[in-house]
Task: structure prediction
Amino acid sequence: MTASTAETAGLTLFEVALPLPLYRRFTYRLKGDQTIPAPGARVVVGFGRRRLVGFAVGPVERAPEDVRVRPILEVLDAEPVLSETEWRLARWMARYYVAPLGLVARLFYPPGATYSVGEGAPGRPTRAPERLHVLPVGELDEVGEAAARDALARAPAQLRVWEAARDLDAPIERSAFCDAVGVSSGVVRAVAQRGFVQVEPRPVTRDPYRTPQALTAVEEEGPLTADQAAAVAAVKRALDEPEGGQTLMLRGITGSGKTRVYVEAVDAAVSAGGRAIVLVPEIGLASPVVSRFRARFGDRLAVLHSGLSDGERHDAWRRAREGQAPIVIGARSALFAPVGRAAVIVVDEEHETAYKQDETPRYLARDVAVYRATLENSVVVLGSATPALETRTNAGAGKYQPLVLSKRIGDRPLPEVEIVDLTKGDEGAPGETVAPGITRRLAEALDETLSAGHQALLFLNRRGFSAFVQCLDCGWVAMCPECRISLTYHRRPHELLCHYCAHRETMPDACPECRGRGLDTRGLGTQQVERAVAARYPDARIARMDLDTTGAKWSHARIYRAMQAREIDVLVGTQMIAKGFDLPGVALVGVVSADTALHLPDFRAAERTFQLLAQVAGRAGRGDQPGRVIFQTYLPERPAITTAAGHDYEGFYRHEIDDRQQLAYPPSARLANVVVSGSADDAVAEAVARVADHLRERPAAGLAVVGPAPCPLERLRGRTRHHVLLKAVSPSELERALWDLARHEQSLVGANNRIEIDRDPLNVL
Ligand code: ADP
Ligand code: ZN
Ligand code: ZN
Result:
């Protein structure tokens, strides 16, 4: 194909989407000899004094008036990079989520490819990266061999290097070679300089998920259960359907074998020559799922990870694009991996909030996957034990096809859940606290579990030692200077930490207000529970899993493997232990406080609580012994807690959907959260009032404006935040109102404040 140039097509003006948080359109001039870029192709343009990588949108008739049109400096992609559907998807996302198109288009490229020119990175696809490799030593005759041994005899380390290189079958990366032989790279260099081994740069495919540290043990699985077989058959029927994307809701109780259904669904799609995308909420916590896919598909899997370096991400991206890896697994942004058409998209734990991006574009990957499937006539599988209310409602309305796995593998029973009422804490009562966070009842259960040689999980959704620090004399509470939020006390290191902005300071010796010495730590954190358990069970092997213990690469998988190997008796952790843990040794799950999420001032507080409790309870009883669960709570009558204890998803759904209807919250209405923020309190309050007035001046059918009001998290990272909620019956009315707002954004909030539009918010904090 000969690419047409701007001159032959008679074009000069071109719209370019820039990756900037601005709602304006940008027009540039294409030079006569430049190739006309395909929609979505990267171009380099000047913007102010900077050079930016933007995305070609298309030719335009005329430029905005009184603007000096600057030239497109370079067209980076001569061939189209985005498929037509990908470009349509990008445009739909920009419109739906009220986001600048350039910020959306960027998602379809690996990050290194869209750096601003001059930010240090080239903005070009990089070549396959190269690293030094040690090459195998060729065959030597006896004389050559003896000569080499002689020459190296006085340097035993060098001799070892030479011997190891002689045993190689193929080139090996120098770093891996050094690890295996136990020498430094300097030794290898010395042997190479003496000419006994060869070291050369060779291309590498970097995929950190190939290292054993990343993986966890995978058990052989038997034939599909009847439920699994029915679900897989339904997916296959959907794959064979020639028209219309289909979404299947796979609701399977905990331990029912959902992952196996995903694996079979993906297998069916790729066996027919298709591609597949598997989304997991947090790839760092997904080692068990990744390991299962790796066991089935080996190198045909590319793992995308936000923790990857640009180069690593680029490699995975290239393998997906070139088809070596027809299966891509990753967090939400893996939805934009360059697979062309995705025949099947799996969304694991589809109810998880991690699928929502918390910066512009604030897309929800689950919903974008469903839309993508309608564009590509493909199949989406939304899997969960506790589907989001929206998903369950869509299934009820016939939009999604419901599939149910109603039994645990091996007909294991769901665990018994006991509710322990913390308000009844009399001496001798089950609710009496015998150690920080541990009631008499929980202690008894721990005694039994440990003496039977089983494992226990203790769940508390707050890391650190205590929730806050308070002065007993004057009531002072340690607060974050940047956020209007109390600081959490951490032991080791001994300091106060803000869980929102990561501000840290040393723990004071005395109250800064009254100089009183009675500083008290209030409210429990995982560190304190860990300490309490250690004091009670000095012989038990105890570990903790939360953000503070999983900072290092693969530490999550490491702790998981230690649990698999029964090297840990009690694991204390945050919601990290609620998800995806499939450990047959766990006989007891103790929920230290079932109430933490219930107190959040958010319309999804009950749903979150139910989901978290149901998920964490589902970790017990996956082995031969029946499981047992204890919920400690001050609110033993709350439906979110009683239905979770009864494993009653439908009961919770019926109750909660009523509440949402009465308050006109999703899924009964469509919602958008408009947040105005800035450093000055008064200016923010004035700006948000103008926003609310603007919305009210343009009444639309079925649109309600609620507020303005300060956000529940009123000050975060040094910015004051106020918001307006928009509730609508019709999605299109909502979209019209939001775009109208976006177009007037600058005049409404001014240069010093920022407006953020969150359509379909997962929380309104
Ligand atoms: P879920 O995600 O639904 O909680 P998992 O996918 O983790 O459940 O499966 C639970 C356990 O059952 C896993 O250990 C898995 O290996 C095992 N398993 C799944 N399917 C089968 C099967 N058909 N036969 C035997 N074991 C199975
Ligand atoms: Zn004080
Ligand atoms: Zn803070």
In short: Residues 118-127 have pLDDT under 50 and may be disordered.
